[in-house]
Design goal:
The protein is an alpha/beta fold and about 525 residues long. It has 18 helices and 18 strands. It has helices at about 95-105, 105-115, 125-130, 135-140, 145-155, 210-220, 290-305, 310-320, 325-330, 340-355, 360-375, 390-410, 420, 455-460, 465, 470-480, 485-490, 500-515; strands spanning about 10-15, 25-30, 45-50, 55-65, 80, 90-95, 165-170, 185-190, 200-205, 230-235, 245-250, 270-275, 280, 285-290, 380-385, 410-415, 430-435, 440-445. InterPro entries: ATPase_AAA_core (IPR003959), P-loop_NTPase (IPR027417).
Amino acid sequence: MEEDETINELTFYLSGNNFNEVEKKNIIVLTRSSWDDMFSFSTLYSVIYYNSDGERTRLGAVKIGQVNMKSDQRSPNLPSSFTSLDDNFFSLGQDVSYYEELNEISDAFRENFLNSLNDLAYNNEMYKKAYNERVTRISLMRDISHVSVIGQFRRLAQGTSVLTTYDFDFILPNGTKLQNSESSLHFSVVPKSNPPTNIHVVIGRNGVGKTFLFNNMIMSLLYPNSSKYGYFKTSSRIKSDFFANLISVSFSAFEEATPIDEMNKGNISQVSYSYIGLKTEREGKVIIKSPTILKNEFARSSYKCLITGKKQRWLRAVKVLETDPIFKDSEISEIANFKGGFEDFRKYAANIFVNLSSGHKIILLTITRLVETIEEKSLVIIDEPETYLHPPLLSAFIRSLSDLLIQRNGVAIIGTHSPVVLQEVPKSCVWKLRRIANESIVERLDVESFGENVGVLTQEVFGLEVTDAGFHNILKEIVERADDYNEAITYLNNQLGFEGKAILRNLLFEYNEEN
């Protein structure tokens, strides 16, 4: 688990000599093994960590090398104690579990530890420097390939989870009326795919049942013994430990559903649950959070991110958001440099937060809470994030979310009616939800969505609803009165965009064909 304290400077000790006189708190102990490689080098050490309470954690095995080791030098000439090795030394963990153990403690601890040992997976420049050393090839990388070092090991060393394929379905509840469509929704996340597949989208107009679907997804995980909400499955119905945790995000003030209080949900299920949104429950009544509650929520969450080793992850997420000029001008990332206790920090962070627009506040709070809560195999369900956002900010949010999910190996399902969201994901990650009378239709898109024109996506998703509304109606009325294209343009005082002119020509052609 990640420690809730700032990591102090670590001291490394070689076991033996006067080590028994050392107080075993906040230290690392390296014990050299008698194992050697090719009868040439003996570089293997077991690593034990004693935290500030004296609790002992075995981190695993590491090999430590030295630049220009002499032919008769079997082991590196390590000092008996040190806080960090100089550039003549370098190290490499001997299994993924080594880096996983470091990640379990905290990001700050991992970074401090790996920097101190000049870890080759963590430090690419050091890797380049040490790669051709004889001790590296014969000993440190004897059982480890180059691909592993720059791939799986490096991701873990830099705090990114090992990417695991997600492949699951949501089975719709009994009684759901479907018309010639799927009875389940399939979701698949493919590691290293481009475009990324860790964000999935359910799109449809207002009122087709997106929120109802999402509530069923949430309730099916929180009440796993009931089938009335539907259920998630792989080859069989998933167990409670399939998802590490469940995070629900909704900032609509008008939805009737009552959010489940994440602190008082009781023993509903074993899955950890977090709610990020505008509503809260007080004395049995659902209320909308006040601006004071929201700013304090942001301050608490951001402070927790900074002191529990998630600082760099939070900064990375905010940097993506800072492609938006308002975020950039607000210097949100400067919060990470604040020195002082929580009360002073709360005032400082809240003062920055209150000066943002409603949309920017919601996105900053959401991303901060997600950095705080997302773990490996988190399921994030987000209902209509576009409610308060203009398109460029919405795109920045989706990209920041995707980057965070890739780092932590999580997956998100977003409900939306915005084609802008579709532009950010491939069609294999999109479900279109529509309704005819009392029956729902769930289907895939016919066109590729990633990077597609918003107009094309709008037509694909909403079809006749688009052509029967807005400026389309005005053009249809003009076509019935005008004799030709030039006369139709005159009716509009030549005030018609390029796409509108193309639509007008097509409408005139169809009208003349029919008449």
